[in-house]
Amino acid sequence: VSMRRLWLCGVWLVALAAPAFGQAKLEWKLVPQSTWANEVEIQTRQTLKLAGMTNEPESTSKQIQRSTAGERDSLQRLKVKQKAEQMQVTMKTQGLQFDFDSRSPDAKGNTPLEVMRPLYKAVLEQETTLVYDKNNLPVEVEFDQQFLNNLDPNVQAQVKSQIDPANLKRALQQRQDRYP
Fold it and tell me: Per-residue pLDDT tens for 93-106?
């Protein structure tokens, strides 16, 4: 083995190892007094078998959310107000389809799934406040739950646990854990 070959191997090892020393920790940075927008897309597909029958409901939701951070308080908590600016939702189940588009929120279809339309219209009007601690970890989710009172009782029952502030906080924590 020649000295030149050993030297080249050493150079390659150093070159390959160098990036490991410069890696940065990825973390959420919330900047007080700032505004930003997120585009969120959620697709859900399920296969359900009930009494020997198969049902494959699916839904797609696209939303543009505007977030505005305030100032940190005396406990270094930061409140971030969040509101949907645009929303498109498509739900399909058992041959039925429901479509909602915030650009024409009153454009009704003719299926029983239309019972969901008031929910999505209310979500467009709803502002949510996310409260973060000094380490930018979520500590609270605040919003006015009165909009539930205007919904069909069946819809209320379906969404009540999903929009519970404790469940929303848990979902926010999971999001941060997944996406550093």
Answer: 989 999 999 999 99
